[in-house]
Each structure stands twice: as C-alpha cells, then as structure tokens.
Design a protein that fits this description.
47% of the residues lie in helices and 10% in strands. By secondary structure, the chain is mainly α. Residues 4-306 form the Glutamyl/glutaminyl-tRNA synthetase class Ib catalytic domain.
C-alpha cells in the first residue's frame, strides 16, 4: 500500500504572489489533487524584517483567485521555531551535529586567509567539529551539522535527473544560530517532515539547497521526499521574467481581465506537456498532470497564447459563473459595479458575446449594447450610417415591432420585409440598426441585441435614432 501523496507550496511573504510562484503552486495542487492527496500551504515568514501580513494576504488572495484550495490551516514557519530548535538539539544528541564556538571574526579571518592564497571559494572547517566536550568554553555557540567530507551526494530529481554534488563543496552548515534561532535550511526540512510532505515540487533555483537539505534528512534518519525542481519562467526574450516584460504578479492578471480557468490552463502548459493537449479543464489537467511531462528548459511567457487560451475558456464557461467572475474582475480592476439593469441584460446577453472575447475588458466592449443607457451616442463610424433615409426606415419599423413575435424568427421576418420594401439588402438595413442599438458598427447580430435588450428598449432606441 502506497502512502498518500502530500505536496506543499511554501512562499515567503515579502511581496505579491509572483506568476512563477503561482505556477509552482498550481503544479503542486494538480499533482496532489489528481492522486487523491493533500495540498498544504506554509508561509515561510522567518525573515521578520521583510515578512508582512499584507504580503501574506496578497499571496492567499492570489491563490484563491487562481482557484487553488489548500488542505487544513495555513502553517506559519515562524510559529514553529521551537520545534526547529528541538530538532537541532536532537541532532546534537545523535552525534550528527556539533557545538561550534567559532566567532564571526574567526570565520572572516579564515575566509580572508583562504582568499589570500588564491582560493575562489573555501569551505569553513570548524575546529570544534571533533573537539572534546571538556574543552568547550562557557560562551554562546551555534549548532552545525556534520557534513560528509568526501564522496558525493546524489539528488534524484524527477525533472533534472540525477544531480551529483561533491561533498567537499558542502560546509558544516549552521542549523541553529548562537541566538537560538533556526536557519532556513533546517526549518524547511523539519516542516516538510512534520507536515508529511512526500513530494517537494519547487523552482530549480532551490536545486542547490536540496543537497544540503537532504543531509538534514539523513542526519535525522528521516525518509527523503521525491524531489522535482522545475525551471523558472522567462520573458518572451528568453531573459528572467521581470517588470520590463509586463505583469509579474498573479493579482495583476486578474485586474487585467484574464479568467482564472484560462490562466490555470495556460500556466499548466507553461513548461509541461501531455501529447497534443492544449485546451483542457482543471479536472482534465488533474488526471493528465505528471512530473515526467515537465521540461528541463525555462518556459517562455507568451501573452498571445495566454489570450487565446483564455478566449477558449470564456466561451466554455457557464453564463452564471462567467458573470460572477466578471463582477469580481470589476472590483479587482477598480471599475464601477454593474447596475441591476446592466446585470440583468448582461446575464441574458453573454451567450452572444462570450465566444468573441479573450479577456473581460474585451467581453465588456462587445457587450456595450447591453450596458449602455439611452440615449445611445453613436461613434463616428456608426453616425455615418444614420442618414435621413435610414432614420426614416428605423422610424417606420417601430409600429411593426410593437406587436411582433419577440423571437429571432419573428424579428427576421419583419426586418427582411422592411429591407425588401425599401429596395435594399439586409446588410444596408443592419448598419443603421447597429448604430441605433449599440452606437457602433461592430456588434453581435441585430437579432441577438434586440432579444437581449427587449421590445421596449429596442423601440425606444430606434425612436431616438430616427428623431
């Protein structure tokens, strides 16, 4: 019987949720959810100067927008510092760590001497590693782990393959400082072990840490988790993603109007592949996602592909869910909320605009006919279609529409008859109709617009335009 898969996302609360962090969280979430496992969240807030409650809130908000739900309570790494210290002292008792009384000045002098001898990097070798406890002074001490001095440490990584680290390059790292505070390297391992994490899926900027962290597992006799270090996300130019490439924070993408489902789909495919699968739901992604499909090369952010993916998801989403997310977008973007009338019309009109938009701003632009209020002000191109002849035709339509069957078929009959009676093709009639109903030349079909805004509003807009 295999143990339950447990993954985790462990960001530092020093700012917003970066898009790369969002993808890391997504990969962990998909891997756990697709295997009936747990996805845990830990905030690595031991850096008290840089960690802020606002940043933690921003991370939680970003994850919630992406739709990544976590199991159990959010764990604070800082709150567990007593447990970390306890493990450091247990390593002392096991003989896999030792008390080091070397002062910062002595360590600096060692490095300066090594540098003077031309060494590019020197591993500090503490004189206290094998010292007799009887020689210990009555002074503050750090606890250092006893790293192996020869041979190699192998990291068996599901993405990077077997990574070999020469042990001579690994120092006896400090696990507990002389002031009693634990180091990051110790805290991460203790937390992952205590939380039952079976798979550590994270950015490959942590790959070097894995060698040192694996020694902590070995020193405590704990099972080593499955490692999977994923390449970072680069900008379209192949350089590390930064502000110059555009938005880098997850919340910025919400405010820009990308739907969460489309964002999840795009980020899943960013550096991972499963055959020819391009557009899929999260449920489908859970069944497909595996570590073997993750590439070793950095992924490049492609905004055009992101928009195309989001366009598919806008079209796929049920109208009620789409309206709910659109209203959340308005809040995130600082835009005015919908009025009751706008919400009602939009809920009835989404079917004729959602397959033509790639973002929420585009969708709102195409749904302007349902959101605008009388009198409808035509733009320059639309105004040109409202000459005296077309105004007269629009005015003559209103009596017929009063008693028309308000269905697409009924409206088609009336409008086609009106075009024929005036000796024009339907296209010649549709242009001023678009101008009157929406104030622009590019709109959904005139029949869809009339059905969405209703009989009274349609007649009123035609009368306004014909006046």
């Amino acid at each position: 019987m295999t143990s339950q898969v447990v993954t985790r996302f462990a960001p530092s609360p020093t700012g917003f949720l970066h898009i790369g962090g969002g993808r890391t969280a997504l990969f962990n979430w998909l891997y756990a959810r697709g295997r009936g496992g747990k996805f845990l969240l830990r905030i690595e807030d031991t850096d008290r100067e840089r960690s802020t409650p606002e940043a933690t809130a921003a991370i939680l908000k970003g994850l919630s927008w992406l739709g990544l739900d976590w199991d159990g309570e959010v764990v604070s790494q800082f709150d567990r510092r007593g447990r970390h210290a306890e493990v450091a002292h247990e390593m002392l008792a096991r003989g896999t760590a030792y008390k080091c009384f070397s002062t910062p000045e002595e360590i600096a002098a060692f490095r300066a001497e090594a540098e003077a001898k031309g060494a590019s990097y020197a591993v500090f070798q503490s004189p206290w590693r094998d010292a007799d406890p009887a020689s210990y002074p009555d002074a503050p001490y750090a606890i250092r782990m006893k790293a192996p001095r020869d041979g190699v440490t192998e990291i068996r990584d599901e993405v990077q393959g077997i990574v070999t680290i020469r042990n001579e390059t690994l120092d006896d790292m400090i696990v507990l400082r002389s002031d009693g505070t634990p180091t990051y390297m110790l805290a991460v391992v203790v937390d992952d072990h205590d939380m039952g994490v079976t798979h550590v899926i994270r950015g490959d900027d942590h790959l070097n840490n894995a060698g040192r962290q694996q020694m902590v597992y070995d020193a405590m006799g704990w099972p080593v988790p499955v490692w999977a270090h994923i390449p970072l996300i680069h900008g379209p130019d192949g350089k590390k993603l930064s502000k110059r490439h555009g938005a880098t924070g997850v919340e910025e993408y919400q405010a820009m109007g990308y739907p969460a489902a489309g964002m999840r789909n795009y980020l899943t495919r960013l550096g991972w592949a499963h055959g020819d699968a391009e557009i899929f739901t999260s449920a489908e992604a859970m069944t497909m996602f595996d570590l073997k499909g993750i590439g070793r090369a950095p992924a490049r952010l492609d905004f055009r592909k992101l928009e195309n993916t989001c366009g598919h998801h806008l079209a796929m989403t049920a109208d009620a869910a789409l309206l709910h997310e659109l209203e959340a977008f308005l809040v995130a973007a600082g835009r005015p909320a919908l009025t009751d009338t706008q919400r009602d019309r939009l809920s009835r009109g989404l079917y004729c605009v959602k397959d033509r938009a790639k973002t929420f701003p585009e969708l709102l632009e195409k749904a302007e006919f349902a959101l605008t209020s009388r009198p409808v002000a035509p733009d320059e191109a639309a105004a040109k279609t409202l000459d005296s002849v077309s105004r007269g035709i629009l005015k003559s339509l209103t009596p017929r529409l009063q008693n028309a069957s308000w269905t697409k078929e009924g409206l088609e009959t009336i409008l086609n008859d009106a075009a024929a009676e005036n000796g024009i093709g339907f296209g010649k009639l549709a242009a001023p109709l678009r101008a009157a109903l929406a104030g622009r030349t590019a709109t959904p079909s005139v029949f869809d617009m009339m059905l969405v805004i209703g009989r009274d509003e349609t007649i009123a807009r035609l009368l306004d335009a014909g006046a």
